Amino acid sequence: MIQAVRGTKDILPDTIDNWTYLEQIARQISEQFGYKEIRTPIFEKTEVFSRGVGEQTDIVNKEMYSFLDRGGESITLRPEMTASLVRAVIQSSIYQQQSITRLWYFGPFFRYERPQKGRLRQFHQYGAECISSPYPESDVEIIHLSTTFCKAIGIDDYTLLINSLGNDAARAKYRAELIEYLRTNKDRLSKESQVRMELNPLRVLDSKDEQDREIIKNAPVILDYLDEESREHFEAVLSLLDHLKIKYEINPRLVRGLDYYSHTVFELQHSSLGAQDSFGGGGRYNSLFNQLGGKETPAVGFAMGAERLLLILESIAKLPQVKEIADYYIVTADENYTKYAFEVAEKLRSIGKRAIFDLQRRSMKAQMREAGKLNIPFVLIIADEELKNSTLTLKNMSNGEQTQIPFEKITEHI
Ligand code: HAM
Questions:
Q1: Alpha helices of 244-305 — where are they, by DSSP H?
Q2: Best mutation site among 82, 84, 121, 125 for ligand 1 pocket (most ligand atoms within 8 Å of CB)
């Protein structure tokens, strides 16, 4: 038997309602904030991500699904949306036609990671991006959108971690100091951190290695290096969050794994997820437009992992109820009545009801049993007696009540 590729999952009919539910709430909340949906291709030229996400990130270094297509071009299955979205926005110039561009998305993404609970090679994200405002209010709008979404799906016991990476100048100063500190402790750092230290020192702060963590404890923190502009921006974000009563924890070591961030970065964590406790994250990216060949444009956004959201909902017993597949099950005495079943079903569907009937020529008893098994609330019976009187028997499956309704007037009686 051919199995699905490791780290990928079929979304089978028994869980599809969870997915449509997530997507429906994502759409509803995004639209309430004035965001329009955007869909971009699943694959892009590799340089969209190598330039956008950053050559020295784990994503670009180790996790991309890249291949040469038949024309010899290097193509990559999108590992995240922000770079693709910015590419699309630059290409279509929509950001030059309107003052603020607000976009949301839901779709599959691909990263070659070691699969485990909450970590897949094909996973899904809901995200949003707010383009063209350099001001703290847009950072807060994005955070507010993400927390409003959490509330709408019933997740409230999460932690919002927040930090500022400052502007380019502040970050450059901090980077130099951090490298200096790490160099003096180089021999005690893990092999991986020794390599990272020179290429992408901020990522060392993310190390899970015990010994590294000891060293990181005493490392300089970025918040001490923020200049006035960066500090004012961060303080304004925090003050607006306070005003909105959005609880947060400042974590001066939160750096996030993508290179495009500046100023605000944030992450949403939930304890039910274990090692992969982060279910969402985002931040400001003021130089990404430039890096991808567009006009310098400030922007901020977030993304959440749909699989992780569903794991949380399962752990707190807040998954939506599974919907039954139809409102009506039409039971017929035998195949001679099938033509009436087609007619009745069509009438029901024409008034927006969901109707099914047997296609295996089973006995009435078996059909009734199936309707019960499928939790279908109403059964319509067509047999001799009914046809003789030009009526149907409508049975309410929850209380067993039966009524006769005229064949020609079903829709009026439903
Ligand atoms: P990210 O932190 O790389 O950020 O991913 C966001 C979320 O996607 C994670 O918190 C997690 O829930 C989910 N996720 C990531 N990788 C996997 C995986 N292998 N399996 C399952 N879920 C996963 C971004 O992607 C940025 N583009 C967010 C952003 C938008 N920043 C600004 N705008």
A1: 288-291
A2: 125
**What is the number of the ligand 1 atom nearest to the C-alpha of 79?**
25
Ligand 1 touching residue 158 (CB < 6 A):
no
Structure token digits, residue 315: 């752990």
Ligand 1 neighbourhood includes 282 CB (under 6 angstroms):
yes
Classify residue 191 as left (phi > 0), alpha (psi -120 to 50) or beta: alpha
Binding site membership of 129 for ligand 1 (Cβ less than 6 Å): yes
Mean pLDDT by 10 residues, the chain (414 residues): 97 95 98 98 98 90 96 98 98 92 98 96 98 98 98 97 96 94 94 89 89 93 96 98 98 92 97 88 97 97 98 97 94 94 96 97 97 97 86 95 91 84
Nearest of 395, 325, 386, 332 to residue 362 by alpha carbon:
332
Both structure tokens of 390: 């030009």
Rg (CA), the chain: 28
**Which residue's entry shows tokens 């963590």?**
213
Q: What is the pTM of this model?
A: 0.95
- The pLDDT tens digits for 335-391 are 999 999 999 999 999 999 999 999 999 999 999 999 999 999 999 999 988 788 889
Contact between 364 and 333 under an 8 Å Cβ cutoff? The reply is yes
Q: What is the C-alpha end-to-end distance of the chain, expressed in Å? A: 47
Rounded to an integer, what is the distance from CA 80 to the centroid of its chain? 11
In this prediction, residue 208 carries a pLDDT of 84
Length of the chain: 414
Q: Is the CB of 52 under 6 A from ligand 1?
A: no
Substitution candidate for ligand 1 out of 5, 60, 81, 123 with most atoms within 8 A of CB: 123
146 lines ligand 1 (CB under 6 A): no
Ligand 1 atom nearest 301 alpha carbon: 33
